Amino acid sequence: MSRSLIALAIIMAAMPLAAAAQDANAKTKEITLHGCVMPGLDKGTYVMTQVMEMPGPGGAAMPAVAHGRRVLFWLHDDDDVKKNAGHMVMVRGELRDMDKSAIELKAGSQKQGGLVVEFEGPGKNVRAANDVVGSAVGTAGRVAPEQNDIPTYLAHIAVEEVKVMGACR
Questions:
Q1: Which residue has the higher pLDDT, 15 or 152?
Q2: Count of structural domains within the chain
């Protein structure tokens, strides 16, 4: 099972979430996400930006604990996602678990400098350039990046199907 990659979805209160969503300890629930696959800074990693949950027949899958909070989706069995950098994809799978996590901002090591955004995940962290995910993470006004971890929830998704929807916009 690949655990090297992450789908970034910053879900805020403005996103519609069904009232039928259950608590974090509920049994697995089917979830469908749409997002743009962008390469991470380290080989074999990626982030998904512009992520939206597409409610199914039973409503949204996100539990009540996630309402109005930042949520990162950690995709397991994600080889079909990984190979589609630069494309908008639809990912269908099972929401298995939710954990508390954090996003870290660090001084950039990429050629152009700037901040690096690091997502904490199980067994491996994923790093991306701030210009790829900065607007979703909200890094404005951060002068000492290492001291400003952003609390999040980490939703574990067992990927069952991936469809390419076209190029990222």
A1: 152
A2: 1
Place 169 in a pLDDT band, splitting at 50, 70 and 90. confident
Residue 156 lies in a domain: yes
Choose among 2, 1, 5: nearest CA to 125. 5
Residue 60 domain boundaries: 6-167
Does residue 1 lie within any of the structural domains?
no
CA distance 137 to 132: 10
Q: What is the structure's pLDDT at 6?
A: 52
Q: What is the DSSP string of 53-86?
A: E--BTTB----GGGTTS-EEEEEES-HHHHTTTT
Which pLDDT value is given to residue 148? 66
Alpha-carbon span 130 to 127, nearest angstrom? 9
Token couple for 124:
């491996």
- Please identify which residue in the block is written with the tokens 């993470």: 137
Backbone angles phi, psi at 52, to 5 degrees: -135, 140
- Supply the pTM of this predicted model: 0.72
Contact 158, 97 (CB under 8 A): no
